[in-house]
Structure formats: structure tokens, C-alpha cells
Design a protein that fits this description.
The chain is an alpha/beta fold. It has 16 helices and 15 strands.
Length: 388
Amino acid sequence: MPSKGLYIHIPFCVKKCNYCAFLSFNADDKTKQDYVKALINEIKLKSAGRPSVETIYIGGGTPSVLKVSQMRDILQTVFECLDVKPDPEITIEVNPGTLGSSDESILSKLKAYREMGFNRLSMGVQSTDNNRLHFLGRIHSAEEVERDVRLAGKAGFDNINLDLIFSVPGESKADALLDARHLIKLKPEHISCYSLQMEEGTPFYEMADNGDIIEVTDEEDRETYHEICRLLKGAGYEHYEISNFAKPGFRSRHNSLYWDMSEYIGCGLGAAGFEGGVRYKNVSDIEEYLRAYSDEDSLPNKPLFDEENVNTTFDNISEAVFTGLRRKEGISYKELCKSEQEFWTVFADAKQEAEKFAESGCLIMDRRGLRLTEKGIDISNQIMSLFV
């Protein structure tokens, strides 16, 4: 059987950011410890048959708020219960301000991560301007970002991703480009750039709805995006996915599993997974999760899901087009169907509209498959929606 990915969700954070719609919240030490115990039991439940995994990604929330001993117990369970393939990519998300209070304590924690098996670090930077960081609700400073990246290299990490958010209300294009230049100077192997979205249920959404902040216009957002793309490509980063840029050889292997329809196991509160043609989302109520998985001797017969959907053949092909078009390479007809003819038989209703996008320079259609142009990225959702 092909190897899978493993995603583990740690829902805890010090403070909810103003833009964040992810499943995350602050918690006391007892809740964190109870959660780690339950998470370990869930991993054991889902390890029946000892599935093979080639990537492990621990995200959140902020996984680095856990104690080193707790993270070690989680990763040790993974290695004991699953068949972790040689040369795996093992990523942990960290936020500056959560690794320690001094250079010594930060370096100690990062070295512990390396020693327990993590070989990729993904750091939520978001901005390098202290005023903007405060506005976003981040708990760290720009100076702490530089410090933590430097110490991560000293600890032995040579595969580091830095996240950047642009199109923040009140931020100019020049501001965003300055952020990007600052990240380039830190020499990470990977940079992820995201346009700020006003997600329902967040403080920013309410502020925008009340007129307290004004969203950046779509036109300015797209101009900023393309300028950042040109800047990063000029600095040697490959633009391999709509929001992701990597030095040669440093594409995110785990995220690539999502985009090429590979299977992945989801563990933890609200985590999503895709196995055996079934997409699922774990239960997202912390009390229900802890009740279900706290006692190793009385685990449920099957994992608890909030959502579970068995994909049809069309679902698989449709999702593969939707996610595959995010990649630089786009999608191949033969990757999804037996031939170009069969592909357009499945999507006969979409072909005419797709040809219009191709004629306008937004989509490349050739004998191999489909891929977005730089112009097409700006309307990617419109193009992708043809195949849903």
C-alpha cells in the first residue's frame, strides 16, 4: 500500500489572533495533559494494521505551547504504532514567543525537537512590523522572529518555512514587500504567503462588518500578490503552488499530499483525514473528545467524526482537479482519467467555459492537461468551480 501522511492537531494557543478561524483556544495545564493522553490513545486506535506514513505534520493552534516531554510522548507513540518510512518529513508548527524566555531555553527546546525527530520547522511570522503584529493580535515581536530563526539554525534545522500575511487593513503594497524582503534576508528554505481573509466569527470580521476597519481592495491585493511573487522568484524561490514558494528541493512534501489526492490520517480535535476514499473530520468538541479517548481500555469501536463522506469516482476526479490546479504543474489528464477524451467526457459541461478562460489567457489547455497562468491565479476559484 502507498505511504500516507499523518496530520496531528494541537488546538491550544496562548491567545487567539484577530484573523484566526482555526480550531484553537487557550487551556490550562490539566486540559493540555488530558488532551495529550487522549491524542495518544486516538493515534493507537487509528494505527490498526500499522499503516505506513512518509510525512508527519503537527499543526495547530500552536504545538510549541506543549511541554517538550508531551511532544516527545506524542511523536514516540507515532513511531511505535505506525510504520514511519525512511527519510520522512516531520514538521512542527511553532510561533515566536512560545519557545522560551531566553536564548538558552529556546535553543534547548529546538534541540529537543531535532533530537526527537523533527526535521522541518514551520514558523508563524505573519509580519516583520511590530505595529502590524500588534494589530493582527500576535504575541511576538519582529526581533523575536529573527532571534528564533537564528536559534533554529543553530539547533540544526535546515528546512524552515516562514508564514507571511499580506493585504492587512492599513498596510500598503510597499509595506508588504518590505515584509517579504525581511523574510528573504532570514534565508528560510520555504515561504508561504497568504492574503488576509475576513473569516466569519473572527474579531476582524466583526470589525469590518461594523466599518471599524476597511478591507484592502481586490485590485490592490492582486497587485501586491504578484509583486511578492516576482520578488520571491527573483530571490531563488520556486513558485510551486499558489501560496507557496520553496528553494530547490524544499517543497513541502506533506502539503503536496493534499494537492495530489494522496491519503492522510487525521488525529486530534477537529482534524481532517482522507483514507480509503473517505473524507472525514474528527469531533471538534473538546469535552466529547476527551470522554471518548481518555481511557485506553475503553476506546470507541471506531473514531468519532463530526463529518464523514464516501467519495464517488466523480468526487475524486473533481477534487483532484480543484486541488491540482493550485500546483505549478497543474493537472494531467492521464493522472485522473485514461485519456484526454475521457476527461472531457466527464466534464463535458465545463469544456466550453474552460476554453473561454484559455482564450483570455487565464488557463493553459494542451494535450497533457490544464494549468493556471499567472493571470488565471487571480480568478482561480472561478476556474476551479467549473469542475465541482
